Amino acid sequence: MTDKSRKLYETACTLIPGGVNSPVRACKNVAADPLFIAQGAGSHIVDLDGNEYIDFVLSWGPMILGHAHPAVTAAIHRAADLGTSYGAPCKAEVDLAQTITDSVPGLEMIRMVNSGTEATMSCVRLARAVTGRDKIIKCIGCYHGHADPFLAAAGSGVATNSLPDSPGVPYGVVSNTILVPYNDAEALEKTLRADADAIAAMIIEPVACNMGLVLPKDGYLKKVRELCTAYGVLLIFDEVITGFRLGMGGAQAFFAIDPDLSTFGKIIGGGLPVGAFGGKKEYMRQIAPEGPVYQAGTLSGNPLAMAAGQATLLELSRADYARLATRTENFAKELETILRKKNVPVHVPTIASMFSVFFTKEPVTDFDGAKSADQKLFTRFYHGMRDQGIYLAPSSYETGMLSFAHTESDLEKTLDAASRVPLWTKKAWPYGQWHRQASSLPSASERA
Ligand code: KE4
User: Lowest CB count within 10 Å: 164, 173, 321, 341, which one?
Assistant: First the structure.
């Protein structure tokens, strides 16, 4: 019942590498063809064939209010009526910068860019300029976008020189990237003791969301902060996902840690292309044109993206994050109980409005643990859920998310679907036999 998606995918593959504009959307990890989405409204999306799904991907994070939120859509319409880009400063940029710096405790100044990758790439350049050092530390399994310095694979033995993790990335670039396991303060201390004088910064996802959802062990982030301070290494919190997801102050407020620099994206753009990096004034004032560290972007601070971000954050400032976190926690616990009744090893970690599903015997605390998850079981789970109208991230290395638009009925239907997926037998799932036609969802103006 996904013929239109399948046909369009065939055409797309003749025009776009892999038929998609970002690899994970190709659903290769779960041997599925991508669905082409025609519309989103609240917690639901509809594909080209009219099948409706409850959406737990939410565009990988931005749609925390749900799709086509009336206030966000109206803000974009208003901005678009005044023009789409000026290449000159506009009030919307200042308004959003004020909102973000007012919301995030450690943030004194911020620069807008157009993606999370631009934010992390620029932030690392700033850290290297400020310290005069070239090396950076990142955690194995954390993802900070596709800029060369981050596409590093662990070399022989951990925390030694890294190897390029993609063709086209020069060895010389990643030789300055040191890899340490996430949640391992001892390995970090050993690295700093050996090499601190050459290290500009450590960049970390305070909650790891790109190896599945892996929570920081108690005290880990505090130890990371203390070690970076002790060895004179800047600490960069990559909050592209956790920013405004864990609350208005992001992970740095949630865990009461004060990073030197932070990066943002996704939610702050309300679904339009936005990233940002910021931190203490003493560092940010080094950014051109105030300082010598060059960083630029034709569409940075785009008025439509700023309007979408500001409207999103305004709604979030009035939202009940604690209630959404409790609902997500209850949902995750119930999902874990349902899946365990199928006699499969499974853990469903959760924090704030996020969760993920690891088919592992032990809880996952690092990338080695994430890699040990049973991919066959995850693939069956993914297909079994998608065929019942539940749209999950097509990889166990991604994180599921709830929005403020998800209803109790959505969660009940999802848990009911999970109870029906045959994980305990080799019986082939009757893939594709499910569909529920939805001509279209109510538009934003109809829901305003
Ligand atoms: P973008 O360049 O994709 O806007 O952001 C890069 C990035 C940086 N930091 C973190 C913590 C991130 O999670 C990301 C991007 N997240 C992935 C999903 N896990 C984007 C999805 C995709 O690549 O299509």
Answer: 341
For residue 103 and ligand 1, the question of a CB distance below 6 A is answered with no
Cα(234)–Cα(226) distance, integer angstroms: 11
Backbone φ, ψ for residue 216 (5° rounding): -65, 135
Residues whose CB falls within 8 Å of the CB of residue 124, separated by 6 or more in sequence, listed in order: 136, 147, 149, 200, 201, 203, 236
Among 300, 317, 334, give the residue marking a domain's end: 317
User: What are the pLDDT tens digits along the chain (448 aa)?
Assistant: 899 999 999 999 999 999 999 999 999 999 999 999 999 999 999 999 999 999 999 999 999 999 999 999 999 999 999 999 999 999 999 999 999 999 999 899 999 999 999 999 999 999 999 999 999 999 999 999 999 999 998 765 544 568 889 999 999 999 999 999 999 999 999 999 999 999 999 999 999 999 999 999 999 999 999 999 999 999 999 999 999 999 999 999 999 999 999 999 999 999 999 999 999 999 999 999 999 999 999 999 999 999 999 999 999 999 999 999 999 999 999 999 999 999 999 999 999 999 999 999 999 999 999 999 999 999 999 999 999 999 999 999 999 999 999 999 999 999 999 999 988 666 655 555 444 555 567 777 787 7
Query: Domain range holding 346?
Result: 3-68+320-447
Q: For residue 278, report the distance from its CA to the centre of ligand 1, in Å.
A: 18
Are 308 and 345 found together in one domain?
no
Residues 6+ apart with CB under 8 A from 427: none
Whether 143 is a known active-site residue: answer: yes
Distance 241 CA to ligand 1 centre (A): 8
Q: Which of 213, 170, 176, 218 is nearest to 198 (CA)?
A: 176
Please tell me if the CB atom of residue 268 comes closer than 6 angstroms to any atom of ligand 1: no
Same domain, 43 and 101: no
Instruction: Give domain status of residue 73, yes or no.
Output: no
For residues 310 and 341, state if they share a domain. no
Domain tally, the chain: 2
Binding site membership of 205 for ligand 1 (Cβ less than 6 Å): yes
Q: What is the pTM of this model?
A: 0.96
Is the CB–ligand 1 distance for residue 395 below 6 Å?
no
Q: Is 368 a catalytic residue?
A: no
Are residue 120 and residue 217 in the same domain, yes or no? yes
